[in-house]
Amino acid sequence: MDLIAFLKENDMLLFFLFTSFFALLFIKLTFSKTIKNLPPSPPTLPIIGNLHQIGDKPHISITNFAKEYGPLMSLRLGSQLLVVASSPETAMEILKFQDRSFSSRFVPSTFRQSSILPYSLIWSDCDQTWRTLRTVCRTELFSPKAMETHSRVREEKISDMLEFLRNKQGEVVDIGELVFTTLFNTLSCIIFGQDFIDLKDEHETHGGLKDSLENILEYGGKPDFGDFFPMFQRLDLQGIKKGGLKQIKIVFSFWEHMIKERRSQIGSSAWSSDQANTLLDRLIEQGFSDVQINQLATELYVAGTDTTTSTVGWAIAELLKHKEALSKVESEVMKKEMNFDKITESQLSELPYLHACIKETLRIHPTGPFLLPHRAQETCEVMGYTVPKDAQVFVNIWAISRDPKIWDDPLSFKPERFLGSKVDFRGQNFEFTPFGAGRRMCPGLPLGVKSVELILASLIRGFDWVLPNGDDPSQLDMNDKFGVTLQKEKPMKIIFKPKQQSLVA
Ligand code: HEM
């Protein structure tokens, strides 16, 4: 988001266009109606507003602004108005009391594609399409009954992961890659009834499916000039819209033939509804079109894999860095009552310290530091200020979960703070909303949490974790990288040494 860096990186044509439209834009902004009573804002430059002050770590720069300009502030990103809520009270206004008015999305250009936007769960406004998709997801994927039905698939995929690690004795493993593949295959089995990526095939990645999904996320996280200056939107100067659509189409093409094949089986007289055992079957039976199925599957992969992988990676890093916490969670999962070979989902409720570690990880490293961008559907009053229609709205959960007024010693990893505490991430405690709250809250929470718990418990139970080159875990680099999700900047690479059964307490 650093305009200067942006201009340096792009060619002269862009610069020429920028300067030619400069005067026109200046006139437009100068004579446009000024909105009174906006939330406080840092001083802005003409045309670019605060763009030059955002940098490549917006969660940090915007949090620093909030310290000066308060829990509800506004920033100008070019001609786009951004309103940021940075306290539990302002978050509650946006996500609870005025949830209806703020439940629309600000859609980044990668996803603002007329051919797919009408079918989107993540980027649609809360219209009938969105309601239907949320209902399908709840019924078929995330309800207690659906979660129970799919528990065997999740356990199987994690067994594959553990088997893979046992065969990798002494070798350095990028745990992010491995967890990503495991989650990807879990979702693939639930949606399409088959794996798409071979765990051993670390580099081939099923002809690029994984790469294409990662590219979609990459395009989605790129700051787009057209978002800040909508008059340039149609030109797609950085090629973000075009590039994003190309990747989305590549992803669709991977399973298109499966949809066709299944559709013809389901249409035949030999088909009986008892045979429907994947999400694909259910969607076809319920009359979903190919493009609707393509879009929903892609969004489930995009929303479900990176978020969960990143949470596991951060939890591993924090536990390695905090030996005491690791040994406490280790003695919990090494209890005699736990099945040594395979921890099952039914055993997870017996691991309160592990749950506390996961909450603490999500507090310090929320995968979406601003949630996904919301948009004001109409002009609203919040805390006595005016938030105009179509303003982009961020809830800065990164700032809230590091606020010393709310959390004791907020920068330290202390899972104990959650033991015996009623504070939970289910959208009722506005000081801690890593999954959001209100109608746009993450529908995948049950799957995300179960997966993180089961993967971590299994990795702790099965292996000792050692850093390559004898690196000291207390010195682990915890820098983050801002994108669609807040990732660890350096991938988490570990040697997994199988534990001996005799260690069981
Ligand atoms: C640890 C794991 C996860 C975290 C931390 C997480 C977090 C979030 C957050 C912060 C949002 C935005 C809420 C808002 O804008 O108010 C969200 C939305 C969403 N998440 Fe998750 N998520 C996780 C796992 C998953 C999984 C496993 C899936 C599905 C397979 C999923 C599917 C979605 C979808 C579809 C949305 C958009 C909902 C809407 O706009 O109505 N998430 N998630």
From TrEMBL:
Q: Known SUPFAM superfamilies for this protein?
A: Cytochrome P450
Q: Which residues form a coiled coil?
A: none
**Family from the record:** Belongs to the cytochrome P450 family.
User: Membrane-spanning residues where?
Assistant: 12-31
Q: Which Pfam families match?
A: p450
What GO molecular function annotations does the UniProt record carry, in alphabetical order?
heme binding; iron ion binding; monooxygenase activity; oxidoreductase activity, acting on paired donors, with incorporation or reduction of molecular oxygen
Name by which UniProt lists this protein: Cytochrome P450
Q: Which UniProt keywords apply?
A: Heme, Iron, Membrane, Metal-binding, Monooxygenase, Oxidoreductase, Transmembrane, Transmembrane helix
Q: Give the organism, scientific name.
A: Cynara cardunculus var. scolymus
Q: Which InterPro entries match?
A: Cyt_P450, Cyt_P450_CS, Cyt_P450_E_grp-I, Cyt_P450_sf
Cofactor(s) it depends on: heme
Which positions does UniProt annotate for heme binding?
442
